[in-house]
Amino acid sequence: MPRSRAKIDIVPLGDSAVVLRVPNNDAALKAQRQIENAQIAGVIECAPAYDSLGIFYEPGAIESFDQFVSQIQSASKSRDRRAKVDSRLIEIPASFNREVALDLGLVAQHAQLSPDEVVDLYCRVEYRVACIGFTPGFPYLIGLPKKLITPRHATPRKEIPAGSIAIGGHQTGIYPSASPGGWNVIGRTPVQLFDPNNDPPVLLRAGDRVRFTRSTS
Fold first, then answer.
1. Domain end residue (candidates: 83, 113, 135)
2. Where are the alpha helices (DSSP H) in 77-204?
């Protein structure tokens, strides 16, 4: 596939996607809305990340790659007032009991706080879904207090239970299904984040705001 000569940081990703590089997650979410609103022929889906936007398209539906990139460039530079990011507030009930909070003590030790102080601080913050990935429905959440930043485990666990709430470096997230993982598990939620029988199958989407509420169960 020929590369575009357009002066924009867009790179091909295989033969049916491109990656638009942007400064941060705010810009990625805005570009997603701009490109979706532009209704560019061939675009199938936009997938935001921390500092990029993946744009998947049907090769047979575009006239030329250069023209396609030019359309993306124009859309991402537009002043479309409809490009405001939808932001739902989702409350996630969570248990932080010792039986499910496998690494709460480790996080508390690293932060030089008590386990209760860690939970109080964690639940005090409003997070934002930066992107969805790793496994279907896994939300990468930004907004973790600096005090709670904790390195990943050097050796990942072979299986982390579904619903586990965890911290990995400066990120936090929720494991939608049982899977391997190296993040620090501090709690668990009964909320189902991914169900293939639902439409859409994922509960959270990029741009959503998330608050955790402490439950007694």
1. 83
2. 104-111, 115-124
